Amino acid sequence: MARCIVPEAEAILDKEYKVLDKGFVRLVDYLGGDARIVQAARVSYGEGTKTVREDAGLIDYLLRNDHTSPFEQVVFTFHIKMPIFVARQWLRHRTARLNEISGRYSVMKDDFYIPASEDIALQNKDNKQGRASEESDADFAKQVQESLDEGQKNSYAEYSKLIDTGLAREIARINLPLSLYTEMYWQIDLHNLFHFLRLRLDAHAQKEIRDYAKVLFEIAKKVSPFACASFENYKLGGVNFSKAEFEELKRMLENKDGQLEGKEKERFDKKMQLGRQI
């Protein structure tokens, strides 16, 4: 099979998708697409792409049943600009290859992230690692933005002074804040991209990295629309049940008595409240 060309993907190569106030995502290159997934899956008996309907059905089957290796045949290379605090979360996903701009070799740009007023909120009282869902009042949000801006300007001014003295860049950068933007080339296969998206599109992920995940997913849809549709249906929109929860669900559907207790019941109730597809 010749190199897999996806016209929709070709049309967006090097297109800059804006994220946050100064960030972006660009698809630099890609390898494969839906056709490559089905070809890899059918290699055992020497057949590649059949009809569009059969291909979509096969991809559905593979993803639903966690036959993941054919999805590793599709590879993306992204150029991404993001705040350092987002990059540190990003690098928790160790199933990719990347090269990040170095503050040891380069003088860092005066690029800092300031959240929009609607994204400024107080600490969530129930979730220790997140913000409350309610927006702060406009005056408070403005004060926060001004405070962040002032701190960033002071930090960069001190950094610039140290650079001007001839101090080594690797030392001068030490006090630069996490809001500074960094850039990286990030290469990942579709299977591992789906794992990244499943975690980072979740409502519990930080809002800023969710914004990047949404853009990555939109780009992935251009390259592998069938695979992304299956992922959205079975992984993003699906729910996994424990053995006890599944038995309880069967009893409920059969109109039989049966009760879960303790933590199993709590987990089951939460899942049912989500109203997601089984």
Share of helical residues: 40-55%
- As laid out across the biggest beta sheet, the strand order is 1-2-3-5-4
- The number of distinct helices, counting runs of at least 4 residues, comes to 11
Structural class: alpha+beta
Distance between the termini: 37 Å
What is the residue-mean pLDDT, rounded to a whole number?
90
Low-confidence stretches: none
Largest sheet: 5 strands, antiparallel
Tally of extended strands?
A: 5
Strand residues, percent = 5-15%
Rg estimate, integer Å = 23 Å
Task: Provide the succession of SSEs.
Answer: HEEHHEHEHHEHHHHH
Q: Give the overall shape.
A: flat
Question: Which features characterize this protein?
Answer:
278 residues, alpha+beta, 5-stranded antiparallel β-sheet, 11 helices, 5 strands, 13% strand
In brief, what are we looking at here?
The protein has 278 residues and is α+β, with helices and mostly antiparallel strands. It contains 11 helices and 5 strands, in the order H-E-E-H-H-E-H-E-H-H-E-H-H-H-H-H.
Write structural notes for this entry.
The chain is of the alpha+beta class and 278 residues long. It is 46% helix and 13% strand. The protein contains 11 helices and 5 strands; from the N terminus they run αββααβαβααβααααα. The chain has helices at 7-10, 34-41, 52-64, 84-90, 138-164, 169-172, 190-200, 207-223, 225-236, 243-253, 262-274, and strands at residues 16-19, 23-31, 75-83, 97-100, 181-189. The chain has a 5-stranded antiparallel β-sheet with strand order 1-2-3-5-4. Helix 2 (34-41) packs across helix 3 and helix 3 packs parallel to helix 9. The longest helix is centred in the middle third of the chain and has 27 residues, at 138-164. The two termini are 37 Å apart.
